Amino acid sequence: MIHASLFYLLKSINIKYIIFSACWHNIDIGIFERGLLMVNKVTVNWNGREIKVNSGTTLQEFAREYSESTAPIVLAAKVDNKVRELSYPITQDCKVETIDLSMKDGERIYARSLVFVFIRACRELFPDCKVTIEHSFGGGLYCEVHGDFTLTPRRVERIEKQMRDIIQNDEPFEKIDMPKEKANKIFEEMGWFDKIEIMKYRPEDTISLYRCGWMTDYLFGYMVPSTGYLKEFGLKFYLPGVILQFPCCDDPIQIRPFHDNPKLFKVFRQAEKWSTALGIRNIADLNKCIEEGRGPELIRICEAYHEKQIAAIADLIAQQKDDVRLILIAGPSSSGKTTFAQRLRVQLMVNGLYPVPISMDNYFFNRDQVPVDENGEQDLESIDVIDLELFNEHMTRLIQGQEVEIPHYNFVTGKREYIGNVIKLSHDQPIIVEGIHGLNEKLTEMIPSENKYKIYISALTQLNVDDHNRIPTTDARLIRRMVRDYQFRGTPIEDTLGMWPFVRRGEERNIFPFQESADIMFNSALLYELAVLKPFILPLLDNVTEDSIYYPEVNRLKKFLKYFVDLGPADIPNNSIIREFIGGSVFGV
User: Is residue 8 predicted with pLDDT exceeding 70?
Assistant: First the structure.
């Protein structure tokens, strides 16, 4: 065996000659190559710090050596802007940015790995059960376990104990690349036929699966190195399923506390029942529907369902027309608030009411009067940018039948102006106010509750990739917004992606805490919409280069969008909520 110190000398010699000589003298080539690798140094920019290490050093070894003990645990890393798991070996000079639980990518990796352990624990305790990962809820993931038994708090405790045993054993996650045909055999053995169906639409011939212990599964994205990384979690029984709790990027140290939202959960359940009734629970079901020529019919059914719900809301308001004078509509970005408000107005007119829309924006303070946040910056999504005293005064006067001059906010000058917009309302003219703060009682604190009707709207998609891989509702809204911003505002999707974290922060502060105060909730998601949005968004995503800081996020979205079969927009009516984002809306939005 050659002494390791000789390799420093051999590096300056022709490699082919070295290998030939090694073979001639019956030297173990494996030992030879490993020795040569040990002395080959690479330069790594590790979170801004230049470090020289041996080629072949894994990201996990890096993390153990160079991460600060007080920092959140490293779960993965971006190597030259591409997300890599910690098992990835460094073989050339590169830039590495670590990913931990204080980041959204880290939260996704942690949650995904925990889902794997949850599914495995369920199958170990209830071998023939079916596990479905439904949607986010209450600060965690709502999941269901189906079988010839009833899920109870005691059974949930057993599942949690089984998970903790797996985590205590610190079992590795092994990534395995294999042909789709081989993967399908594994899915068949496990009874995961939904995964076999979605594989028909995967363009690649191979797939990366993960094995942990006895179980092999396909989960959409990267994993932690081993189960020992997943110590912080909890299971909470929530009839008829269970909520999987874990830390989040806002607080990476402890699991996110549970917040019950029974009204929101009811909307999710309605969406689940609706999609089940139509036989479309996942992408493969939707694709089959489109391939069989039933796409136009699905569009008509979904749109009729929306119209029926909006009409029902209008009927409820009309039944209280003697009391309800102010209709408040709120929801997160790209939920379709503007189109919903217009359609509700039409349905109220059917009931003999003639609503008058008033924009909350017109009550903004002058730009130089806007208060600053804890970072010394103007938070334009805070309720404090609105002149609440003036807004309440005007609304109370209008409700009492008095004449009011509504201001106009000039976004160019950043000042409120009065341009002669004087209005006076009759008894059959309720006010419609649409905006992110509509549910915040602070906005209308001078108006009695019986005079207000609050509506919360959001796009709560129930369509998933398969039983174990969900499509977050946030992703659906982000895709809507990117398409709309590019189509009608000329905004590159990278600018939209750059603003998205601030938009989400505003939603967490100003919308979600008040959603349960709504009198009614409306789900603006359409089962078919991602198949329609795909041809609009994919070319925009494809234009984002690999050196963009947004490339990892773009790549993540592209990976699940590729499974959809395209559906043309020709059959979408011009009053559809989706028209707000792709164009052709009769409301001009």
Answer: no
